[in-house]
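User: Please fill in residues for this 337-position structure.
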């Protein structure tokens, strides 16, 4: 009886030591990952002061974002391609056009994008305002005939005049530039703080053990050399197919901007916030799963064969970059008449 009792005492003591060792080891892994991330990482936080100060312009921008009447044929809005309830990408209109072969590039998310220094898959636009202008006027997007055409469309909707005058108290409030400003204000509020942000600020419990391990694998494969900043990407263009040629060579990316042969197959490095919610992946939408995409990156960018176990751990880490949708903020508004 005494021997049996001694066995169980020893069992629980050793178990407690093992548990304490595992916890200590996990804390050490968390600390080292945080130190690795800090030089590359910028926090995402909701700016409540901004939301209060600019609430009129934000509300106007929200209405413009959902309004199809800004487009040439009054059949497509920003929301048509950037479904905010689907993490800002792959709206019904985009999917319809993709099925018809009209679109040749995947739609990027509009969450957390305001600080980015480049836009479009080829990195050809250098700030959010220029991107919004292109979106309204591009034949591939809303196809408005001109800036004046957008202004005329807005002026024909009586309900917009007081909203513009309240937001922009000037002589001629309904202008193309003011519409861009309102849209920019709304998009600036589209942020999704995630567990990774809490982790960087010192909360070791924000990430699971596997996510922390995945962060270390992500670092070991040198993914941070390109995926940096507040959006874990979107900061630079890089060649797609550094070590092995990318299968789809029909879109040459950044080459189309300057026609410089040295830039063939250069594309903007994809932002990774909310990436597990924004399938498919790559500019050509060629991958349907995150694990497959991780392996393709290893193969074509690093010349590495990433194992299934490694890819699954990286996938878990990337899930820590996903935040909750701001459901009240993105609720469809009543449109002016």
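Assistant: Residues filled in for all 337 positions:
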């Amino acid at each position: 009886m005494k021997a049996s009792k001694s066995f169980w005492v020893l069992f629980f003591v050793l178990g407690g030591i093992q548990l304490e060792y595992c916890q200590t080891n996990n804390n050490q892994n968390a600390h080292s990952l945080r130190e690795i991330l800090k030089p590359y990482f910028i926090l995402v936080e909701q700016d409540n002061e901004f939301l209060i100060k600019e609430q009129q312009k934000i509300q106007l921008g929200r209405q413009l974002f959902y309004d199809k009447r800004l487009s040439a044929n009054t059949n497509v809005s920003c929301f048509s391609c950037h479904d905010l309830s689907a993490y800002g990408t792959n709206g019904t209109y985009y999917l319809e056009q993709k099925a018809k072969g009209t679109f040749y590039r995947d739609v990027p998310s509009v969450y957390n994008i305001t600080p980015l220094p480049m836009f479009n898959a080829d990195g050809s636009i250098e700030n959010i305002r220029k991107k919004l202008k292109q979106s309204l006027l591009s034949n591939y997007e809303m196809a408005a005939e001109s800036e004046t055409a957008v202004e005329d469309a807005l002026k024909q909707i009586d309900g917009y005049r007081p909203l513009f005058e309240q937001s922009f108290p000037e002589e001629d409030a309904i202008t193309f530039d003011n519409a861009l400003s309102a849209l920019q204000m709304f998009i600036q509020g589209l942020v999704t703080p995630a567990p990774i942000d809490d982790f960087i600020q010192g909360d070791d419990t924000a990430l699971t053990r596997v996510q922390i391990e995945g962060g270390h694998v992500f670092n070991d494969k040198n993914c941070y050399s390109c995926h940096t900043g507040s959006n874990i990407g979107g900061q630079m263009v890089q060649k797609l197919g550094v070590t092995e040629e990318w299968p789809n060579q029909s879109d040459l990316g950044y080459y189309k901007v300057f026609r410089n042969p040295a830039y063939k197959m250069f594309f903007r490095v994809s932002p990774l916030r909310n990436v597990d919610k924004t399938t498919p992946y790559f500019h050509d939408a060629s991958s349907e799963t995150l694990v497959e995409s991780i392996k393709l990156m290893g193969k074509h960018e690093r010349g590495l064969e990433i194992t299934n176990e490694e890819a699954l751990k990286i996938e878990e880490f990337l899930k820590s970059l996903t935040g909750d949708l701001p459901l009240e903020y993105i609720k469809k508004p009543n449109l002016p008449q």
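For context: Strands lie at 237-239, 266-268.
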